[in-house]
Design goal:
The chain is an alpha+beta fold and 558 residues long. The protein contains 14 helices and 24 strands. The radius of gyration is 23 Å and the shape is globular.
């Protein structure tokens, strides 16, 4: 998939390139790339139900729709929807032969052409085969951020000139108007033409329902009262049969999920970098803790359109008044994980291509912050600064079920008070955090994380591209919740996307990153460790890093 996925819990990117993670630069021990208790299929029992805790109960099950990008949604839909490519733990890509027998660049001149050969056995649960028309419909739905389709990202799709059949309906010829180096990230998750052709069905047809699927599992039941969704083995699946009979996903707060794991009510849950949770799950009989270097990063997004932060000088002052090193140490205390501050919006610390681009904005410098605020006209008056009758007051909006977010807010509150800025920590329901607050811009600063993919350039574009207005005058933010950007950033990201030389692409995206820091779109904290608690005999699931989850192989070891 080509878009970053957001996570509420201290959980989601920086996409990792196909070189994967190596040893941290200042640590002697290489970090694990994945930790999933890998077991061959013939040693996994047939049958059983996996009880899987997720952090949010989705209402939008179209993962390509603006409100469908939560990690919980992707975890569920990944078991039921097609993707042309899978990734190993290093980020190396291969076609998923359940859906595609081959996919390759068949021409570079005069235009780039990619030809997919589809598996003719692949079909939707309504009986229709998956053909070139499904690819065409997805392109048309996702190609424009200002159209009637409320999309999470147009990245890559906007570069396509046409999607046409090849020698039959199972061959797809994708011709690009502009070269696109990370084309493997397109068309996953793939949704059917039946719902992608119609904006109404695209935007609303997957609300509280999953009308069709095409994977080893299919929908069993959605229980909105209990906040559970159960998926069951699909007997019509043409690939290797799923080992599990069913997977029961249950939305639980982070505390409730840890309690449920400890009491044996669930089998697997994300732990996140929470020291108390980590300590507790390590002592659960019959349990295991699976840890790996995640392709994820923790950050604060600044709303550049809010009245107090519309001035970039004020945003820079706020960034420089926040001690990121202290926040990182606080978040990761008690974990078996190095506390290293991250200084890049595109690449995580352990990743090929990583460079420190934070510059002056990334330095903790309260004295410089005070000078900037003075120059911006915010003068100290008592405890806080004022401009006329207005107090320099910011809303730090956090989800209710994430204790670390509150800790981050309270620490930042004290840091900003030192320079005369009032920070109000506002707690909102977790299941409304994104849809009602972040997506709508009802915040000044918000902490969350991005989930990575093997496509570091295209994954990030929808986050950092400058928002545009549609025909009705509404700002189309895609995933740029900061709502700021610049033509220079857009040009550099576009050039990086067109570059087929990976080294040159990394140089260009690092140039863009320096400008993202200068714009103070967001401040990055740290690469997030993936920490998962799972029953000891649960196989092929845990902390995957860049590895794709193979749902049909998950099960109980013999």
């Amino acid at each position: 998939m080509n878009a970053f996925r957001r996570v509420v819990a201290v959980a989601l990117l920086a996409g990792l390139v196909a070189g994967g993670c190596g040893a941290p630069s200042n640590q002697g021990t290489a970090l694990k790339r994945s930790d999933i208790n890998p077991v061959p299929r013939d040693r996994v029992r047939h049958g059983g139900t996996l009880r899987w805790a997720i952090e949010q109960f989705s209402t939008q099950w179209n993962a390509n729709q603006l409100n469908g990008t939560e990690a919980s949604t992707v975890a569920v839909m990944g078991a039921m929807m097609p993707s042309p490519f899978v990734s190993d733990e290093r980020g190396n890509l291969a076609v998923d032969r359940n859906y595609v027998s081959s996919a390759r660049v068949t021409s570079t001149s005069p235009r780039q052409v990619v030809t997919y050969r589809l598996n003719p056995r692949a079909r939707w649960s309504d009986g229709k085969t998956i053909t070139w028309r499904d690819y065409e419909a997805q392109w048309k739905a996702l190609r424009s951020p200002t159209g009637p389709f409320q999309i999470a990202s147009s990245t890559g799709y906007e570069r396509i000139a046409s999607v046409k059949p090849g020698r039959d309906q199972y061959e797809v010829a994708v011709t690009f108007a502009r070269r696109y180096g990370e084309w493997q990230g397109l068309f996953g998750l793939l949704y059917p033409a039946a719902t992608n052709r119609d904006p109404k069905r695209f935007n609303s047809g997957w609300l509280n329902r999953i009308p069709v699927s095409a994977g080893p599992f299919k929908l069993g039941k959605i229980d909105q009262t209990a906040k559970t969704i159960t998926i069951v083995r699909d007997p019509r699946w043409w690939g290797p049969q799923a080992k599990l009979d069913s997977i029961a996903f249950r939305a639980l707060s982070s505390d409730a999920a840890i309690n449920a794991f400890a009491s044996g009510e669930i089998d697997v849950t994300d732990v996140g970098p929470d020291a108390s949770h980590y300590k507790r799950v390590r002592g659960v009989p019959g349990g295991s803790v699976r840890e790996a270097a995640g392709p994820d990063f923790r950050h604060f997004t600044f709303n550049g359109t809010s009245p107090a932060l519309s001035d970039v000088s004020v945003r820079r002052a706020i960034a420089m008044a926040i001690n990121r090193d202290a926040l990182v140490r606080a978040d990761l205390t008690g974990l078996n994980w190095p506390a290293r501050t991250m200084n890049n919006h595109f690449f995580v610390n352990t990743q090929t291509g990583y460079r420190d681009n934070a510059g002056q904005v990334g330095r903790f410098d309260p004295a410089a912050a005070r000078r900037l605020l003075d120059q911006a006209g915010w003068r100290r008056s008592g405890a806080f600064r004022r401009k006329g009758s207005r107090v320099l007051e910011l809303r730090f909006v956090i989800p209710s079920d994430v204790p670390t977010s509150r800790q981050e807010g309270e620490l930042s509150q004290a840091m900003l008070k030192d320079v005369g800025v009032k920070l109000d920590v506002i707690t909102v329901p977790t299941d409304k955090f994104f849809d009602q607050y972040i997506a709508k811009g009802t915040f000044d600063i918000a902490p969350f994380s991005w989930l990575g993919t093997p496509y570091p350039i295209s994954s990030a574009q929808s986050i950092y591209v400058k928002p545009t207005k549609d025909a009705s005058g509404h700002l189309q933010v895609q995933q740029n919740y900061a709502r700021v950007g610049s033509p220079a950033i857009d040009r550099l990201m576009s050039r990086a996307q067109e570059e087929l030389d990976l080294g040159r692409a990394r140089q260009l995206i690092n140039q863009a990153d320096r400008l993202v820091w200068d714009e103070v779109h967001s401040i990055v904290l740290y690469q997030r460790p993936q920490i998962t608690a799972a029953k000891s005999n649960l196989a092929n699931i845990g902390s995957s890093g860049l590895r794709s989850t193979v749902y049909q192989d998950i099960g109980w070891a013999r």
